[in-house]
Design brief:
mainly alpha
């Protein structure tokens, strides 16, 4: 395990649902834009490396691209 991050079963299911909806929206061409304040907050999060790692794996597995996450680096 790379990041040693603990999460409850409920949170995993909730996260999976959100990712599923996001992938569906991306494939349907209905992406949501993050506003600058949210992007700025994400960029200073201590968990940003974990977030970017997860996003990278999802992009590879499902051939999708999360446009705004890359701007948070």
């Amino acid at each position: 395990m790379k990041n040693h991050f603990e999460i409850s079963d409920y949170s995993i299911r909730n996260f999976a649902l959100h990712i599923s909806v996001a992938i569906t929206r991306i494939k349907d061409g209905k992406e949501l834009e993050l506003d600058a304040n949210i992007e700025k907050e994400l960029g200073t999060s201590p968990d940003i490396d974990l977030l970017l790692s997860i996003v990278n794996e999802i992009e590879k597995a499902f051939q999708v691209h999360f446009t705004n996450v890359r701007t948070c680096e």
